[in-house]
Design a protein that fits this description.
Elements (H helix, E strand, L loop, with lengths): L12 E3 L4 H9 L4 E4 L5 E3 L3 E3 L10 E3 L11 H45 L1
Antiparallel strand pairs: 1-2, 2-3, 4-5
């Protein structure tokens, strides 16, 4: 449940798609755009849940917090990622060196064929 419309009081307020960067940023902060199904009002409203067990009085909305960010990686995980990037970097360097050799050979053979055909 997302609360009531501030214009007409209708309880049927639904989520709406974000339009632009401001609404996208507001959605990330926990204020997604909402739209009233009765009067068409559209605006930013906080995510709320209705849980009588958590509220001091039944029907009082509780603000739903966004999920906590994941914990930072451990030093062992960071070292594993560093080694993986290093191996990938070495493979890339070897592949680029091999490509350079192949290109040089192709160009060298092509130049040799041109020189040989011109000499005759």
């Amino acid at each position: 449940m997302t609360g009531r419309c501030p214009r007409c009081g209708n309880p049927e307020v639904q989520s709406s798609r974000a339009r632009g960067a401001v609404e996208t940023f507001a959605r990330l902060l926990g204020f997604p755009p909402r739209r009233c199904t009765a009067c068409g009002w559209r605006g930013l409203r906080p995510r709320v849940i209705f849980d009588a067990r958590k509220a001091s009085k039944p029907g009082i909305p509780q603000v739903e917090l966004p999920p906590a960010p994941p914990p930072p990686p451990s030093p062992a995980e960071l070292e594993k990622r560093r080694r993986h990037r290093h191996r990938h970097h070495i493979k890339t360097q070897k592949r680029q060196a091999l490509q350079a050799v192949v290109i040089a050979l192709v160009l060298g053979v092509g130049a040799g064929i041109i020189v040989y055909s011109c000499a005759q």
